[in-house]
Amino acid sequence: MIRLFRQSAPERAPAPDVIDLAHEGGVTRVAVLRSASARRITLRVRAATRDVVVTAPRRAALAKVRDFVESHADWIGARLARLPQAAPFVHGARVPLRGVEHVVDHAPDRRGVAHVVERDGVPHLLVGGGAAHLSRRVEDFLKREARRDLDAAVARHCATLGVRAHSVTLRDTTSRWGSCTAQGALNFSWRLIFAPPFVLDYLAAHEVAHLVHHDHSDRFWTLTRRLAPLTDRAEAWLRTQGASLHRYGAAADDAAPAALEAVDAREDVEPPPAQDAASESAPLDPVEALLARARAMVEALDARARVA
Ligand SMILES: [Zn+2]
C-alpha cells in the first residue's frame, strides 16, 4: 500500500519533457512546451538561442509529439544548419555598429572606456583592460550607444506627436525588437544598435506611435509611416536580417525565458518568419477544442492589453 501510495504521489517539480532527436550522427535536444491554448503541435527552430522547441496541447500524448518531431528531423537539421555562426566579441571580431562593420581591437595597455578610431579607412573599436573583460566591455559600449540612439529617436518622435513616454528600457529580448505597455513604458532590444540607423529609428517610431494608438490599426500604421518614412524598408530588413543581430556577443543568457516568450504574446516585428514554424493539427475532442479556443481568445485579449 505504502509503495502504491508513493508511486501515485505527485512529484514536486516534474522535469520538463525533452526529446533527444538522433539525426545525421548527432543528437539534437528538443524542448517540449505544454500550452493550454495550443490546438496544434508547432515546431520552432529559434535563431536567437539556437535551439529547438515543440509546443503541444496539454493533452497531446508525448509519443505523438515525438512522432511529429522525428518526422521533421530533416527540416530541423536544415534550419539549424542555416543559422548564422555565433560571433563572440574577441580581438579581431567584426561587429556592425549602426550597420557599419567595426573591427574589435583589444589594447590591453589602454585604460578608459572603449571608443571608435579609424585606421586605414576601417573603423576599429578600441577596447582596453584585461582580456577576461573584453567581451563585457564591448557589450557595455554597444549598450551605451544603443541607449543614446534610442533615447534621441524616442525624444524626437515624441516631440513630433506631442506625447511623452513613461520610460525607455533596453533589454536583450529574443522574441520582439520593441514593445509598449499600456502605461507608456517603451522597451527595446539593445541589439538594434547593430542595424542600420533607419531600422532603429523605425522601431522607435513604431513604439512611440503606440502611445497614441494601442493597436496595429490602419491609423497606427499611417502615423508610424509619417514618423518613419522608411517603415516598409525597415520591416523588410528585420524580416530578412533581424535574426543575424542575435549572433553577436556571448551566447544569449536569456535562453530559458525565451522558451516561454515564444508561446507568450507575440507582437511587433519578431524575427522568425512564418515558414520557420512547422505545425500539424493534433486531434482534440470537441469540448476540449472549444475550451482551448475560449482560453486562446482570453489570452489574446490579455496580451493585447499588455503589449499593444
Ligand atoms: Zn506594435
Bound compounds, each kind once, are: zinc ion
Low-confidence stretches: 1-13, 251-276, 279-289, 298-308
* Biggest beta sheet summary: 5 strands, mixed
Radius of gyration (CA) equals: 22 Å
- Assigned CATH superfamily of the largest domain: Metalloproteases ("zincins"), catalytic domain
**Helical segment count:** 9
Oligomer: single chain
Q: Give helix and strand order, one letter per element, not per position.
A: HEEEEHHEEEEHEEEHHHHEH
Outline, from the CA principal axes? globular
Overall average residue pLDDT: 80
Q: Please state the structural category.
A: alpha/beta
Descriptive notes:
This protein has 308 residues and is an alpha/beta fold. It has two domains: 2-85 and 257-307, no CATH class; 94-250, Metalloproteases ("zincins"), catalytic domain (Zincin-like, 2-Layer Sandwich), CATH 3.30.2010. It is 39% helix and 23% strand. It contains nine helices and twelve strands. It has a five-stranded mixed beta sheet with strand order 1-2-4-3-12, with helices on one face. Strands 5-6-8-7 form a four-stranded mixed beta sheet, covered by helices on one side. Strands 9-11-10 form a three-stranded mixed beta sheet, with helices on one face. Strand 5 (94-97) and strand 6 (100-106) form a beta hairpin. Helix 4 (134-161) crosses helix 5 (197-210) and helix 5 packs across helix 7 (231-241). It is globular and about 55 Å long. The N and C termini lie far apart (54 Å). The model is unreliable at 1-13, 251-276, 279-289 and 298-308 (pLDDT under 50).
